[in-house]
């Protein structure tokens, strides 16, 4: 592994809601994505999911609360919790999640990306 620059990696992403794997730490993938608009409601039955905001802001709606994140902040959505990320403006996010985590959990939509799509 060699050092990499996050800003440069983000500049190579053009599609919203389409994470790209940039590395792995043990059984976890490190991914980056550009987000804008609203995603779909979904849950990850057996996996937590960490959102770290590199640029912009993000709201993560859950059934009982909404968490608002700004640049430099992170939040871990616990396994099994239904959530829907939402970004009014373009947001750059780093995700850390188990390799087994399905992009949209068990929900299938036009936004769903396979692991192969994320490489």
Description:
- With 119 residues, the protein is mainly beta.
- The chain has one domain (6-118): Sandwich (Jelly Rolls).
- It is built from 1 helix and 7 strands, in the order αβββββββ.
- Strands 1, 2, 3, 4, 5, 6 and 7 form a 7-stranded antiparallel β-sheet that branches.
- A hairpin with a 2-residue loop joins strand 1 (20-25) and strand 2.
- The longest helix is centred in the N-terminal third of the chain and has 6 residues, at 6-11.
- The protein is globular, with a radius of gyration of 13 Å.
- The two termini are 16 Å apart.
- The mean pLDDT is 95.
Biggest β-sheet, characterized?
7 strands, antiparallel
CATH architecture group name = Sandwich
Oligomeric state of the chains present here? single chain
What share of residues are in beta strands? over 45%
Query: Poorly predicted ranges (pLDDT <50, ≥5 residues)?
Result: none
Number of strands: 7
Protein structure class? mainly beta
Helix content: under 10%
Mean pLDDT: 95
Number of helices: 1
* Number of structural domains: 1
Round the Cα radius of gyration to an integer and report it: 13 Å
Q: State the CATH topology.
A: Jelly Rolls
CATH superfamily: Jelly Rolls
Dominant shape: globular
Q: How do the helices and strands follow one another from N- to C-terminus? A: HEEEEEEE
Top-tier CATH class: Mainly Beta
């Amino acid at each position: 592994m060699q050092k990499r620059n996050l800003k440069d990696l983000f500049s190579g992403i053009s599609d919203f809601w389409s994470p790209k794997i940039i590395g792995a730490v043990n059984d976890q993938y490190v991914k980056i994505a550009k987000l804008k608009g609203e995603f779909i409601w979904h849950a990850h039955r057996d996996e937590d999911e960490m959102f770290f905001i590199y640029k912009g802001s993000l709201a993560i709606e859950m059934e009982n609360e909404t968490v608002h994140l700004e640049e430099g902040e992170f939040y871990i959505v616990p396994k099994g919790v239904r959530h829907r990320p939402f970004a009014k403006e373009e947001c750059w996010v780093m995700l850390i999640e188990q390799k087994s985590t399905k992009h949209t959990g068990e929900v299938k939509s036009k936004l769903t990306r396979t692991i192969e799509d994320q490489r």
